[in-house]
Amino acid sequence: MQDQIISNLQNILQRIEAACICSNRSPDEVRLLLATKTVPANRIKQALEAGSTLIAENKVQELKEKYDDLKEISHTNHFIGHLQTNKIKDILKYDVSCIQSLDRIDLAEKLQQRLEAEGRTIEVFIQVNTSGEESKFGVHPEKVLELIKRVSELNALKIKGLMTIGLFSAETEKVRTCFRLLKELQQQIISHNIPRVEMNELSMGMSGDLETAVEEGATIVRVGTAIFGQRIYPDSYYWNEDKV
Ligand SMILES: *Cc1c(COP(=O)(O)O)cnc(C)c1O
User: Fold this and answer.
1) Residues 181-224 pLDDT 10s
2) Which of 99, 128, 153, 220 is the most exposed place for a label (fewest CB within 10 A)?
3) Are strands 157-164 and 122-128 parallel, antiparallel or unpaired?
4) Could you give all domains of the chain from N- to C-terminal order, each with its CATH number?
5) Chain-wide mean pLDDT for the chain?
């Protein structure tokens, strides 16, 4: 079991490196994030001990359950799931340094209130729905700029970039369209020179499409299945509003 995780990790790092070489990028421009939903703490621990440093959960409940088991091993926690406003207080207890799934102003404002009360700040990515699929969260591409302008006025939130989940399709070129759109939005936002807004990060690409994402400029790829194996829950359990 342990050896499997280690060899899967090596395999993913090689895939990232190969994709970087193909697109004339340096492999250290791309960070691997482990998407750990449904994975028990002891298996996440194996990946951390093998050298991984960046992990992310989709649900506050899972973050909480695994927190004590993982806190001794140095790592960084991001959050990549749909965040309900009534979970804000909870999520801030568990050392999440970045919320990659910020997609609406009411969530941003409630985060600001809570962070201000605690005298803290947090990093955020704006999640964009680049595939047009109803089952995925994220702000509509045409509304991204407006959302970013408003979030930029909330001084406890530090915008670092954009995140998206690409279309699920075996057709690489259709998936590529999503990633290319995210990159274009990034460039557009940069050109507006909005105070306090950094746009260095593009979090895109998963087990099945990370090469395409790296070719289109990903700085973080989020990988679960290809490292930890198949999950027992379908992704709709995490990605559909009525199920969360
Ligand atoms: C589960 C998940 C991933 C990883 O997906 P895999 O196909 O298992 O690699 C990436 N991003 C988000 C937001 C996820 O929920």
Assistant:
1) 999 999 999 999 999 999 999 999 999 999 999 999 999 999 99
2) 153
3) parallel
4) 1-230 (3.20.20.10)
5) 94
Over residues 82-105, mean pLDDT: 96
Q: How far apart are CA 114 and CA 91, in angstroms?
A: 11
Atom 6, ligand 1: residue with shortest CA distance? 224
User: With bands split at pLDDT 50, 70 and 90, how would you rate the model's confidence at 244?
Assistant: very low
Of ligand 1's listed atoms, the one at least distance from the Cα of 222 is: 10
User: What Å distances lie between residue 219 and 199, 205, 242, CA to CA?
Assistant: 11, 10, 31
CA 15, CA 37: separation in Å to the nearest integer?
22
The closest alpha carbon to 80, from 63, 57, 51, belongs to: 57
Binding site membership of 80 for ligand 1 (Cβ less than 6 Å):
yes
223 lines ligand 1 (CB under 6 A): yes
